Amino acid sequence: MNPENQLVCSYVSPNKTRCNRICVDYKLYCCFHLKKDASLIDTDFEHHFKELLEAKDGNWQGFLFPIGIELPKQVDFSIDARWARFVMLEQEKIVFKEVVDFSNAIFSSNVTFRTVTFEKPVKFDHCRFESVVDFQGV
């Protein structure tokens, strides 16, 4: 299939923002919105997520994050992770230089932020934490 005929992800956020990423293997969603077993390490997600980090693309609305996602030690771009779902999020010694929005996100298992700095506003409005939350040195 050539690029101009590729399907675009069907995800639409609650605020009506559409995902414009290419679908995975003739499915209806991109690798970030495709429902999979999130308790497993997803190398396809990791590969494409690293590309987003390198491009400083922080539009992560509605992403279904698998276990084991790692962020760089310094994040110098805004992150919009509203309505995202995280499994076992553990981050240490990270500096977020710009605004971060986790509003309406679901953290379905342990969440750990240790020695994490948010230099600009961070939002956790209306989040759902379904397990242990551990914020130390934040």
Walk me through what this model shows.
The protein has one helix spanning 43-55, and strands at residues 74-75, 79-80, 85-86, 89-92, 95-96, 100-101, 106-107, 111-114, 117-118, 122-123, 128-129, 133-136. It has 138 residues and is mainly beta. Strands 1-5-9 form a three-stranded parallel β-sheet, with no helix packed on it. A three-stranded parallel β-sheet has the order 2-6-10, with no helix packed on it. It has a three-stranded parallel β-sheet with strand order 3-7-11, with no helix packed on it. It is globular, with a radius of gyration of 15 Å.
Mean of all residue-level pLDDT scores: 89
H/E element order: HEEEEEEEEEEEE
The gross shape turns out to be globular
Q: Helical content, roughly? A: under 10%
How many strand units?
A: 12
Distance separating the two termini: 47 Å
Report the sheet with the most strands, covering strand number, pairing sense and barrel closure: 3 strands, parallel
Category by helix and strand content: mainly beta
Task: Report the total helices.
Answer: 1
Strand content: 15-25%
Point out poorly predicted stretches.
none
Strand order of the largest sheet: 1-5-9
Radius of gyration: 15 Å
